[in-house]
Write a structure and sequence with these properties.
This protein is an all-alpha fold. The protein has one domain: Orthogonal Bundle (Globin-like). Helices cover about 65% and strands about 0% of the residues. The chain has 9 helices and no strands. It has helices spanning about 5, 15-20, 20-35, 40-45, 55-65, 70-75, 80-85, 95-110, 115-130. Helix 3 (about 20-35) packs across helix 8 (about 95-110) and helix 8 (about 95-110) packs antiparallel against helix 9. It is globular. The chain starts with a helix and ends with a helix. About 20% of the residues are buried. The mean pLDDT is about 95.
Length: about 130
Amino acid sequence: MNEAAAAGAPESTPFERLGGEGAVRALVDHFYDLMDLEPAYAELRALHPGELSGSRDKLHWFLCGWLGGPNHYVERFGHPMLRARHLPYRIGVTERDQWMACMGQALREQGIDESLAQALSRALYGTADWMRNT
């Protein structure tokens, strides 16, 4: 139990710990910049449209709510239904691992607190693995 919880104060959300909406946007933008630039993420990049602004927005909106902030994605599109929305795309171990490596690199390079980055990576891995369909 942390000090805030012991004192009866509510614990901050990962969204707040990350730095709010601007920090989530910066993380998402860096993630997609890396995906666009790094050859190690070529298979992952190939799953996305040529122009990434829609993908950037959707991941930003989703992560805001997933992290405990505003539910922008749900307000626009309803329940995320992540697996169903990604079924048209071939997602295997390679794509999962590239997504995780790219996000891990983005978390590190954005200077996210190491304990928060590790907790987010563990949670994101579960989702990324669940998205596999091949």
